[in-house]
Structures are given as C-alpha cells and as structure tokens.
Specification:
The complex is a heterotrimer of chains A (344), B (336) and C (303). Chain A has 344 residues and is of the alpha/beta class. In chain A, 32% of the residues lie in helices and 23% in strands. Chain A is built from eleven helices and twelve strands. In chain A, the strands form two sheets. In chain A, strands 6-7-8-3-9-10-12-11 form an eight-stranded mixed β-sheet, sandwiched between helices. A four-stranded antiparallel β-sheet of chain A has the order 2-1-4-5, with helices on one face. In chain A, strand 4 and strand 5 form a beta hairpin. In chain A, helix 5 packs across helix 6. The longest helix of chain A has 18 residues. The relative contact order of chain A is 0.14. By secondary structure, chain C is mostly helical. Chain C has twelve helices and no strands. The longest helix of chain C has 37 residues. Chain C starts with 7 loop residues before the first helix and ends with a helix. Classes of the chains: A alpha/beta (344), B alpha/beta (336), C mainly alpha (303). Chains in contact: A-B, B-C. Chains A and B meet through helix 7, helix 8, helix 9 and helix 10 of A and helix 6, helix 7, helix 8, helix 9 and helix 10 of B.
C-alpha cells in the first residue's frame, strides 16, 4: 500500500503504510539549485512511501520538478543540487548514506529507466554485453551464468535471442527502450524509477512497453515510480497517482479515482488534455491549460497554481495550501477542497 | 474522381522512393497515396513511425520531390522550379515537430517571424505584420515577445512563434507535422485549439500529421490512416474512429490510452513496419489479426498474402469512409 | 541581420539582449586567465606596431643611412645590439611587427573567406558540387604545403603579397573541412528546413541560417589560423622569399643567418625575432583556446 502523507505534519504520521513492507519512505524531500547567489527551489517538500510491488505515477508538466524529485531519491540530481529531507530505502536514509551503500543501492536495489534510450546505451558495445556487465559485477555470477540470465531478460522484453549481439543503433526506438528496461532489471532491483519511458514512442510501442512493465510488476513484485506528463498513460500503468505542480504534490490518490474525479483544478485540466475518443464533449474542442508553470525562481506567496486556475478565489493568493485529506485514500492541495470538506 | 470544386491541396497517386544506401533496398516511403484537403477543412493523417506520413508532409511542401504522382494546389500541379516553389510556399506553410529545433537560436522572435515576409520581399509594414501574426498565434501582447530568443521561451510559446512565422505569410493551407508531439499535455490542447481557431476565424485549411488518433478526434473533420506508405482507411472522423473497419485502424484505436477504465490494447505482432521491405500482397497481412483468424476456403478466396490492394480513391468532404481490406469485400466479416 | 525594419520601439527592445550576450561572453572570457594573458601580449604587440612609425623613421632602418657599430652586442644605446649594417635590432624588432602582423592578418582573412566559402557551399549542396569541392580540398591537402608556397612565391615574385597569397592558398583547406562539417551539422537541424519551407533559396539559407551558426567556429579557427599564418610568414621569409629591403621578423632571421650572426655568436640578433614570433603565436593560440572554451555550449553549462 502506498501511503501519501498529508502536509499536516507530525499528526498525520499514522497514515503510514504497515511497517515491514515499506520499501521506500520519503519525508519532506526538498531539492534546491544554486543559480549564482540565488537559490532556486525545484522540489519543495514531497512526502510519500512505497511498498514492494507498489506502482506510483508522478504526473506534471516539464518544469514541475517531477524528474528532479525522482532522480534525487538516488542522489542523481546533479552536482549543483542541494537535497534535504529523508529518503529511507529499506530503513536506511540514502541522503546521508555512505557512498558505498548508495552505490550498492543504485546498482542492485533501485534502477532507473531514462527517457532517451539511445544516449543511455553505449553505442560501441552490443546490448548483451551491456547487460552482462552489471550482473557479473554485482551478483557475483560467472560470465556464462550472467550471459544466460541476460539473454533470458532480453527475451522477456521481446528481444529475440538472435538479436542479442546487435548494437544499439540497429534497434528501433521501442526496442531500445525495452533493452533499457531489461538493463534496469538486470540485478533484480526492488525499485524501478522510469522517467518518461514512453514519451518519444509511437502509441503502439507505448502500449507494448506499458504492458511489459505491468507484467514485470506482477511477476517480480518490483516497485515502480513512473514519471510522465500523460495522466492517461499513468492511470493505466500505476495503482496510485501523484500530480506534481511547482515542486509539490497537489493531488494524490488511487489512479482511477484521481482521473475520473479529479479534485484539484490542475489535475482536472491535465485529465481533460487527453480526450476520450467518442466523447462528444471533446470533439472539435481540444482542452488545455493556458499559461506556463511558474519558474522555480518565481514562486511567491499563496497558491502557486492561482495565476492559471479557472476557479481561483481571493483567498488563494494569500494562503499556500497544503495537502488535505479528501477521503481516506486521497489528498489534494486546494482551498476549494478544504472549504467543501469543511462545509460538508 | 474529385468533385467539381478543386481541393485546396490534393495529392494524386503520390509515391516517394528513397534510394537504398550501402546495398540496402530502396525505401518506398510513400507508395501511392490519394488525399484531399478541402477549403477550411482539417484533415488528420495518422500513422506510426515508418508509415511515410512525414515524408508525405514533406512532399506536400515541395521539400521532397515525388518519384511519381502529383501535388495539386487549388487544382494546379506543383512545379519544382525555385521560383514556383517560392510562390507556392507563400500559400502553403509548414509547422514542424520540436519547435525548439525549428527556431534558429541566433534569431530573436521578431526576426524568426519576419523571416518569411523578408524572403518573399513583403517588407512593407513588416513590423505590423509580425505583431499581427504573433497576436493571431496567441502571443499577446506581441511587444513582450519580440526581443526574446528561443531559449527564453517555453515549448508552447516556441510553437506559437513557429505558427506565427507561418501566419506572417498569410497562407491558405497549413501542413503541421506532429505539431504537439513534443509538447506537454497541458500545452497540447492549447496549440490544437489555436489551429482549430485559425480554421474558424481565418478559413485556413490544414493537414495535421500525427501518430495520435485522439488528436484527430480533437480537431479534424476527416482522417486518413496510413500504413507502410499507403492510406488504408479514410473518411469523416466520427465514422472512422467510432466504426473503424480496417484491422489496422482498429488496432491503433485500441492502444490509445484514455480515461476509460477498461483499456484493452490489442498489440500488433511482428516487427515495426520497414518501408525498405514491404510485404507482398496486402502489406498489412503479416501483422493482421483478422487474416490470422481466417481459415480454409475463405483464406484462399481472400488471398491477402498474394493479392495487392488497390490504392484508395481520394474521398472528399462529403464522401463516405473507405477502407482498403480484402476481407471487407468478402462481406463475411463486414459485420464485425 | 538585425531588425532594421522594426520601428524604434522594437529596435530599442531588440538591442539589450545582444549586448547582454556580448557581456556574457566578455564575463566568461575574463574568467580565463590564459586568455587574458594572451590578449595582453597581443595588445602590447598591436600597440607597438601601431605607434612604431611615430618614433622610428627611415633613417634608422635604411641600411645606407644608419651609422651604428656593426654587429655590436647590447649596450645602453642599443639595448638589443645592432645588425651587420649597424641598425638597432630593437627598432627593427618593433618595426618588423607591423609587416609580420599585417601578413598574418591578411593571409588569415583570405584563408577564412576561401575556407568558409568553400566549406559552407560544399556542406550545403552536398551531391556533385559538394563532392567536387571536397575533392578539390583533398587535392590541396595532399599538395606539399611548403614547396607549393615556395614555388608560388617564386612565380609571383618575391615580396609580402606573394607570401600572403602563398599562405592563404596552402592553409584554407583545414578551415574548409572544419566549416563543411559544421555546416552539415547545422543543415541537419530543423530550423533550416523551416527556412526552406518559408521559401528560402540556397543563398538565403547559407547566408541567414548557416553562416550565423558557424560564425563562432570561424572566429575560433581564425585565432588559430593567424598563429599558423605568422609562422609560415616567418618561415617563407627566412627561406628568402621575402622582400630583402623590408623589415619583418622572418626577414631579420634570414639576414641574421646569411650574415653570419650564428657563427659570430650574435645571439641578440637571432633570439629577439624568434622570441617575438613565439610570443605572438602563443598569444593568438591562448586567445583562441579561451574563445573556443567560452563559445562551446557544453562548456557554458558549467558554472
């Protein structure tokens, strides 16, 4: 079960997932970049926890901080980033962990599937060798055993045995992304972070990759954090959704509920951005969201979504909303939600 | 044949073959396509990568010279002399995927939008033209943007600058190649709404190329689905998307992720399409679930693996949908 | 290429970012110490070369009119000694910078114009034209540079003009290859296709889209080319292809060699022109490297 904490603070600690099954527990994660003398907050306090086999989709526009958030979990956010908060992986805080431990987690515990599969693969080595290497290094497997396992992995992502000795450029975009997934699974991770794994791909290939990920989750109980700007994709691939805006979660909950009955106006806009074919409301009426997300350096007082919000109230500009419990499984950071709940 | 009034933009039996490199066989990127874009009509051309949709868009712009067939603008065939092409591009304009790359990093917004009018020596009142185009593209007030450079703009703003650059030439047709594929979900609807608004307010026609069928539902009047260089199904959007007849269209529709809870994608088997190795007979048959399900006599009668499909005739605004599938003729499967 | 036809308001608004980028460039450049050192050396030599005629007249450099001691070692009156005709080596050194720098600069300009022109055209057209131009370039690369320059200078007659031409003819090939490669990279970017779709012809694409985007590379290569050109100038003049009556660093070395400065241990005659060449070449190289680093976008990302 994924527990996503409300912003209320210590009192809400009880909503946490059952101890023992929690794989990843993130508390008040903040990432700040230094730009000259200024501090630019990219992630402004994100908390969630994830159990084995859980899938969490993080949705948001570019610039919302979703990739920074995910990468900083493994301290991959770059040299200029200052990360604070707590990232407990199997009980150990990765933000303060020794380098050796962190490296062990990066290799064998949690792995990342990056967006650009071409640049993340070594162009001058065949894909089998690239998967064999980490297996030999980190699982103390012999080269033969490692090769067998790598071939099996490639087969499981749909790369036939005769093509395992091919080089990255000989594969199509979708095949390369599948190789990336095989690579991420090479050391039997407990957690896979997939950063826009299907963004540059055709719909047909996207469906294949999503199906593949779903199958892997079912079979190996691996936990997945998937990042995308496409709420529809996330809702099919993940059990729970977290919608991110300006460095914070603004709505969380079970995928179906979030996409069918969004509470935050931003989630509503994102959900409507991808139409349902056959829905008369969206026929010849594309729906988007005017304006741009605020630059991290320009976040001021009040609700950061207020300038683009269709249902903004005067009080929104003065008060920065926290994540409030909407019902036992859902939270949203919107003053309207609070007032409705309060009235009810 | 076509109706009395000539289409705004039309292709007839168009083919584009790229010569094979390093001993590879030539790639038949576009292999016989008929398509019409009527006045103030938006046509969506849908296909996967490798379907030839981008090559077709380039051929429509005169950026690629067709191997066979013709491009017609308002009934007149496109000529490929430098002068004729320049005149043509005053009427038909291109909007590309990846607006970030489509803008010269060394040019500010003013210069990027003024580029077209300057190339066409329409510099009288250029400043007003540029502002007007920016305003039409939704960048208001234009003054705020003139001096900015591409890297200072968001993706949506960059695409609006590209669109403004096209509008500055006052074209009658826009060819948009994946105009929203590299944009955020929230910006996608905004840009599509802009294209729709341009049709409603300025009477622009548009051919929008995409891999996304939902885009056709959002803005197009008619849709053509392309597979390996051929249009396999085309017609009014409601008809094609709600009652798809070609197995490929059906498969594509099934993989569009939407908000419905019951999403059951039908994945196509086999390798992604490769235009340098087009299968004989119906080019879709190796991946076709309908053909795989056919047995016995029907299989012999249909002969999808041996019989070449006819090229679909261009449908016009009023015409019904048509699909190129041998198995539809046998009527046995018509009811599915 | 600026918005000349924009009205005053837009014009005023257009300018600041341009200054801004120049300022950013200057700031980044000033952070590189080696670049500043190179720039200081070059500035010193340029100022000397410019003001030299103010205090050095023909009296002091004309062999027939000077009356100093012959091949004298440095003294208070002649800080760098004298040559075999009794001229002050220091004054010759200062005056010689004029001709050396001029040949270097003009030869470099020629090199860049020919090299960039051929590079851009070859990169833009590809096909038959591009192949022919690249064959031509390869052919020039295969020609042995120094003998070609020597025979060119011999055919065109002694003097700085023929040396300048000889340098340009032998050194444009490197620039051409470099610029062609960059042109190919620029041409592959979508904004070139957009310009084509807007109705741009070949000339307009090369001039308005490609040129501004290869310009930084041309700038970088110019500083490195000029160093090479000055070395070539010194070499060719030393080999006796220059005008014996003019004063350049290469000419000084040539005269020192042929008038027995080496056997007479007259180090003050040999070392200064050699060191001057070394300093200026080093100056240009340092500036070139600094400019290269600053303009390289991959380097810019780093704080």
């Amino acid at each position: 079960m994924i527990g996503i904490e409300t912003g209320a603070g210590p009192g809400a600690g009880g909503t946490e997932a059952q101890a023992g099954t929690t794989l990843l527990d993130v508390r008040d994660l903040r990432v700040t970049y230094r730009q000259g003398s200024r501090e630019v907050p990219a992630v402004r306090g994100v908390s969630f926890s994830l159990g084995r086999g859980d899938t969490l989709g993080v949705a948001g526009e570019s610039g919302s901080g979703k990739s920074t958030m995910a990468l900083s979990l493994l301290r991959l956010a770059g040299a200029g980033a200052e990360v604070s908060g707590e990232v407990r992986y199997d009980g150990e805080d990765l933000l303060t962990a020794r380098w050796v431990k962190l490296r062990a987690v990066r290799w064998a515990g949690a792995s990342v599937v990056f967006q650009g599969a071409m640049s993340a693969l070594n162009p001058v080595r065949n894909v089998l060798d690239q998967i064999v290497e980490p297996i030999v290094l980190h699982q103390q497997a012999g080269p033969r055993e490692a090769e067998r396992r790598a071939a099996r992995l490639l087969e499981s992502v749909g790369i036939p045995a005769r093509r395992t000795r091919a080089y990255p450029h000989e594969f199509s975009g979708g095949q390369r992304q599948r190789v990336m997934i095989a690579m991420a699974l090479a050391c039997d991770p407990d957690l896979v972070i997939a950063d826009e794994p299907t963004t540059a791909l055709d719909v047909m290939v996207q469906a294949q990759i999503l199906g593949l990920l779903a199958e892997l989750v079912r079979e190996s109980r691996v936990a997945v954090i998937m990042i995308s700007h496409d709420l529809a994709v996330l809702s099919h691939a993940c059990d729970r959704l977290a919608v991110m805006y300006a460095g914070r979660f603004v709505e969380t909950g079970p995928s179906r509920q979030v996409i069918e009955d969004p509470r935050h106006p931003y989630t509503r806009a994102l959900a409507q951005a991808f139409p349902t074919i056959g829905d008369p409301a969206s026929r010849l009426a594309p729906s988007g969201l005017a304006g741009d997300p605020p630059r991290p350096s320009q976040i001021g007082e009040g609700c950061s979504f207020a300038p683009r919000c269709a249902v903004v109230m005067d009080s929104c500009r003065g008060r920065d909303p926290e994540l409030w419990q909407v019902d036992p499984e859902r939270t949203a950071a919107c003053l309207r939600v609070l007032s409705e709940e309060g009235a009810a | 044949m076509s109706s009395a009034e000539p289409a705004e933009l039309e292709v007839r039996d168009l083919a584009v073959v790229y010569p094979g490199r390093r001993g590879r066989p030539p790639a038949r990127a576009v292999d016989g396509v008929n398509l019409r874009v009527g006045r103030a009509e938006i046509v969506a051309l849908i296909g996967e990568s490798g379907s030839g949709k981008s090559t077709l868009a380039r051929a429509l712009m005169g950026l690629v010279k067709p191997t066979a067939g013709r491009v017609l603008y308002q009934g007149a065939p496109l000529e490929y002399s430098t002068r004729a092409l320049r005149r043509y591009r005053g009427h038909v304009q291109l909007i590309m995927q990846d607006p970030g790359g489509a803008l010269n990093p060394k040019q500010n917004v003013y210069d990027a939008v003024a580029e077209g009018p300057r190339l066409h020596r329409r510099t009288e009142g250029l400043s007003a033209t540029v502002r007007d185009a920016l305003a039409k593209a939704g960048l208001r007030p234009p003054e705020d943007f003139l001096a900015r450079y591409p890297h200072e703009l968001s993706g949506g703003q960059q695409q609006r600058v590209v669109i403004a650059g096209a509008l500055a030439l006052n074209p009658s047709v826009l060819v948009a190649d994946e105009p929203v594929a590299s944009l955020d979900a929230s910006v996608r609807g905004e840009i599509l709404g802009l294209l729709l608004g341009l049709r409603d307010q300025l009477g622009l026609s548009a051919l929008v190329v995409s891999h996304d069928l939902a885009l056709a539902w959002n803005i197009a009047d008619r849709v053509a689905v392309m597979y390996l260089g051929r249009v396999v199904e085309q017609g009014p959007v409601e008809e094609v998307l709600l009652h798809p007849r070609h197995p490929y269209t059906q498969a594509l529709l099934s993989v569009v992720p939407d908000r419905r809870a019951d999403w059951h994608p039908v994945l196509l088997a086999g390798e992604p399409p490769d235009p340098s190795a087009i299968p004989s007979g119906c080019r879709f048959h190796p991946r076709c679930a309908r053909w795989a399900a056919v047995t016995g006599e029907q299989r012999d009668a249909a002969a999808c693996d041996r019989r070449e499909l006819p090229v679909l005739a261009p449908s016009d605004g009023s015409g019904p949908a048509s699909a190129a599938c041998h198995l539809l003729e046998t009527t046995l499967l018509e009811t599915t | 290429m600026t918005a000349l036809d924009a009205p005053a308001a837009a014009g005023a608004a257009v300018r600041p970012p341009r200054f801004e980028s120049a300022r950013r460039f200057a700031r980044a450049f000033l952070r590189r110490r080696s670049g500043i050192a190179g720039l200081a050396v070059l500035a010193a030599f340029t100022v000397l070369a410019l003001v030299a005629p103010l205090f050095i007249g023909p009296d002091q450099l004309d062999v027939t009119r000077v009356n100093g001691p012959l091949l004298a070692s440095p003294s208070a009156h002649y800080p760098l000694g004298t040559d075999q005709a009794g001229r002050s080596v220091l004054l010759m050194l200062i005056y010689g910078s004029r001709e050396s720098l001029r040949v270097g600069v003009i030869a470099t300009l020629l090199t860049l114009v020919i090299g960039s022109g051929i590079g851009i055209v070859a990169g833009h057209y590809g096909g038959l034209v591009g192949r022919l131009l690249m064959h031509l370039t390869d052919w020039f690369i295969a020609l042995p540079g120094m003998p070609l320059a020597i025979s060119l200078a011999a055919v065109l007659g002694q003097g700085e003009t023929s040396i300048t031409i000889a340098i340009a003819v032998t050194s444009w090939t490197g620039t051409a290859r470099l610029i062609r490669a960059q042109t190919l990279a620029v041409e592959a970017r979508p904004f070139v296709e957009r310009a084509r779709a807007l109705g741009a012809g070949h000339g307009q694409i090369m001039q308005r889209q490609v040129l501004p985007n290869v310009m930084p590379l041309i700038l970088v290569s110019s500083t490195l080319t000029i160093a090479g050109a000055m070395l070539s100038e010194a070499t060719l003049t030393f080999l006796g292809l220059g005008d014996p009556t003019s004063v350049t660093w290469g000419e000084m070395l040539n005269q020192a060699f042929f008038n027995g400065a080496f056997t007479a241990d007259a180090w003050w005659y040999i070392l200064p022109p050699g060191l001057a060449i070394l300093l200026v070449v080093l100056g240009f190289t340092l500036v070139g490297r600094a400019v290269e680093t600053v303009l390289d976008p991959r380097m810019q990302e780093r704080p």
